[in-house]
7-dehydrocholesterol reductase (Tetraodon nigroviridis), 475 residues
Amino acid sequence: PAVMEATRRHVQQSGNKKKSEQKEQPAQWGRAWEVDWFSLISVLGLLSFAPFIVFYFVMACDQYQCSLSQPLVQLLHGETTLLSIWERTASFSWSAARIYSVWVAFQVFLYMCIPDITHKIIPGYVGGVQDGARTPAGLINKYEINGLQCWLITHALWFANAYHFHWFSPTIIFDNWIPLMWCANILGYSVSTFAFVKAYLFPTNSEDCKFTGNLIYDYMMGIEFNPRIGKWFDFKLFFNGRPGIVAWTLINLSYMAKQQELYGHVTNSMILVNVLQAIYVLDFFWNEAWYLKTIDICHDHFGWYLGWGDCVWLPYLYTLQGLYLVYHPVQLSNPHALAVLLLGLVGYYVFRSTNHQKDLFRRSNGSCSIWGRKPTYIECSYRSSDGGVHRSKLLTSGFWGVARHFNYTGDLMGSLAYCAACGFGHILPYFYIIYMTILLVHRCIRDEHRCSSKYGKDWKRYTDEVPHRLIPGLF
């Protein structure tokens, strides 16, 4: 969801001008300290409408064959009522609650109790204990990176069950999709509320908390930067990656199994969606250590935006293509299928290569080769709230010289491929590319606003060197 954030903090005047300037610089780094009316209205809108959007899309598939207009038309013509739609919707069930509880508990167990060994077995994979980015308070947290291991164990058990043990049907997720949605909402609201209360009563690090004085905004955008329980259970890392993203590929597999059960075959469109999205998910876990340097971990505080979003929005709306294909099996022509595959693979190449260039540049501190040349960069400095001055480099070579967020451009190409695999019969599967465009354009803007506050005049030098955000010559 896109939220326009205010980014100025009121700094009281003091007699010592230098000391005041030291406080003002780091205060602007990160989430807003004050809330304007536009931000508050946006937050209220998201809190009100985001859960409704999830319900509406899932209900439309369940009751109206994925038509987004038919429920509205019937309501306007008096052919149905909101009450009748609600009564036809599957309700919370204890069987779904047991399934969901076992799922979340299993992911907590894998995350907390099985240290990563895959980095010792798989060449090139970075796992185990890793350092995160420096927080606004100047801290560097440690993380146990074991997402790839969790994904592999989970999917090994899934396939072992499907082909040997038969403990449950591979269609179990689809068959309980709406009751599971209520369970996901319970977890999303519970963890968001717990994080909100925790920030007041027992924050992990009080210096990395931000209070605006507006309870609604603080609940939505979060107060604590890195809420944790104990030394290793990090809320942001767990809920951003597990259980939602581990479930993403399982959800698609359940859709595939349901298509096989209903029609006796699996369409090439369903295979494309499963393959392309599995590449994205595996890439996420393969590069989980790199993820520690992204905006979600480095800038966002943990509130409803991440807590509920990771539990409900991600698994329910990021998988709409597979859900649509259960109701509308699409067999693509060979040229169409090939075009979708190429678009997805090229998008992934741009996305991964762009991120790899930045990661290589960071790890080597600029002592590397990008596109066969020594990289160019902008030297910059920033100040954390502990008064420390830190230096950084902003890359201007390779894809990062083409546009400031060219990784997002590749991401959007992949997102379009997922949608195009569903044909052109309905708008519903195209929600993902519409949403991702809004999200990533807004993320460009808020990320650059933070960078401008963090780096000051050095950021202006960087934007002069690389003038475009996403598409050279356009944006």
